[in-house]
Write a structure and sequence with these properties.
This protein is of the alpha+beta class and 226 residues long. Helices cover 47% and strands 13% of the residues. The chain is built from nine helices and five strands; from the N terminus they run ααβααββααββααα. The longest helix has 22 residues.
Length: 226
């Protein structure tokens, strides 16, 4: 399809140089090419709900292994993406969800002591924005422990002991290869496969990942990105 669009554009340019660009046949061909291109794109488009539908099972497994009670709230399941993106989105999405439950959301007793409900909430949403797909994963947990992240980075030699880093720079340390603040190795955390892999997977799809831990938690329509 891409080669057809390029060939059509080259032919239109050649005919334009010959003074024939305004012919009716060229206008018809141009319209047909656009229609075929849109149809081809529509064939490849699939709703992200096929990926989101796997999350409840992941949440049940995480709840069983961590002892944490987490409610899932989802929106934007009908948002469509290219099938290649859909196929490759599952792994980074799963890792982010596991990270949110394991590192972000507290155990029931900790939440109660902090004045929260015993049950945590994880939000997952997708939407079209400015020609791109925005996927948010948010939770109402404790957020990023910057002191612990910085201490671990110094311990691993990623930054100098006397380094003066901003909050945003400390947050970005979690994307360092092999970085983990897990105290023990489990089937969820501490295995050396971390957020650096998630970021690379997202980059390979032509996307980018950002952290916004300063936004207050809100329902799915305004859920924070974590």
């Amino acid at each position: 399809m891409g080669e057809l669009v390029i060939a059509q554009a080259m032919m239109a340019q050649r005919l334009s140089n010959e003074g024939l660009a305004a012919s009716e046949e060229i206008a018809v061909l141009d319209g047909l090419t656009r229609d075929i291109q849109e149809s081809a794109m529509a064939i490849r488009a699939q709703p992200i709900g096929s990926v989101f539908s796997r999350v409840p099972r992941i949440m049940r497994e995480l709840s069983a292994s961590t002892g944490k009670h987490v409610r899932l709230e989802v929106s934007g399941e009908s948002t469509e993406l290219d099938k290649t993106v859909i196929e490759r989105l599952g792994e980074p999405l799963t890792h982010l969800i596991r990270n949110a439950v394991d590192h972000g959301i507290e155990k029931p007793e900790e939440r109660l002591a902090a004045g929260k409900s015993a049950e945590g909430t994880l939000t997952l949403s997708a939407e079209h924005r400015s020609g791109r797909i925005l996927i948010r994963i948010g939770d109402d947990g404790r957020g990023i422990n910057r002191e612990r992240v910085l201490a671990k980075a110094i311990e691993k030699g990623l930054v100098a002991p006397d380094a003066q880093l901003s909050k945003e720079e400390i947050d970005l340390l979690i994307f360092a290869p092999g970085f983990s603040t897990a105290q023990t190795v489990s089937n969820i955390s501490g295995r050396g496969v971390g957020m650096d892999v998630v970021r690379q997977n997202v980059k390979d799809l032509g996307g980018r990942i950002t952290i916004d831990p300063n936004r207050a938690w809100a329902p799915p329509s305004r859920s924070p990105c974590r």
